[in-house]
Fold this protein.
Amino acid sequence: MTAVDDRPMTTGIVKIFENLEVPEGFKVELLRGVIVMMAGPDVAHNDIVEAVQDQIPRRDWRRLQTQDIAILEETSQPQPDLVVLERGVGPEHGRLMPSEVITLLVEVVSKTSVDRDYGVKRSIYAAARIPAYFIIDPVMAQCVLLTEPVGRGEDADYRRQRITKFGDPTPLEPLGLELDTSEFATYENVRPHRYP
């Protein structure tokens, strides 16, 4: 008889993830127990994140870059491109921001993150009940706002989806503002994908 231990190794994976030494210029995320390492982003990517952050009023909102998110039930610690929460909410110190206090997460699609941003992260963020997930896609020159999270685990998703093209006014209702996307750049020489 063979004994099999099929208990999830969440504690061990989280401990390995937290103690992982990451080479300079790389970003690391824990997504449903899988450690994902990516090279630094394109300049166009960073310009878009900066443009979005500049349009969100600092007096009302905390706009955090490179902030790890604690999503306990998902064995995930993603690092979105931008985390938005009400000013005065959430911890002032520490590496992890609890998902419960977040209003909006922003991901700018990179040349290699299409499947993660539209697939696994969409499901993880919906399962964590993040009220709004905003995908900015320089491959397809579009923005996708996802709201009304429903479901649990890998079956979680967002009930509402609105797509706008770069250059069109893009309402971000959860923040009470309209985003100007006219200066968002697109990537060169990248094959279009089939999402959303």
Q: What stands out?
A: The longest helix spans residues 114-127. The first strand starts at residue 26 and ends at 31.
